[in-house]
Amino acid sequence: PLGGPLNVSTANTPISSMRSAQRTPTDLRVVIDLKKAVTPKSFTLAPNQQYGNRLVVDLFDNAADANPTPVIPDTAANTAP
Question: Locations of Polar residues compositional bias (predicted)?
């Protein structure tokens, strides 16, 4: 049966834990607990020879975290009078 904690490595990720529960015979709920805010993107993949239908969820660092404001050096302080 499906349900319970998902034993996957979350080291060096924004994920603190993951768990799932089978709500009905055809419905599965997956919960991802996060350490920080992320931007999620999801899409489905059709079956292939190895896997059935799949849902892919990518978790990206927020733009503010991923693109810090660059520091511009004060050129006036670096020039001799």
Answer: 7-22
DSSP three-state, residue 63? helix
User: Considering the chain, what percentage of its residues have pLDDT values greater than 90?
Assistant: 44
70 falls in which pLDDT band (50, 70, 90)? Answer: low
- Number of residues written out for the chain: 81
* Distance from C-alpha of 80 to C-alpha of 34, rounded to nearest angstrom: 50
- Residue 70 CA to residue 17 CA, distance in Å, equals 33
Question: What's this model's pTM, rounded to 2 decimal places?
Answer: 0.63
Asked if 10 and 35 touch (Cβ cutoff 8 Å), the reply is: no
Contact call for residues 3 and 22 (beta carbons, < 8 A):
yes
The candidate with the shortest Cα–Cα distance to 16, out of 39, 29, 32, is 32
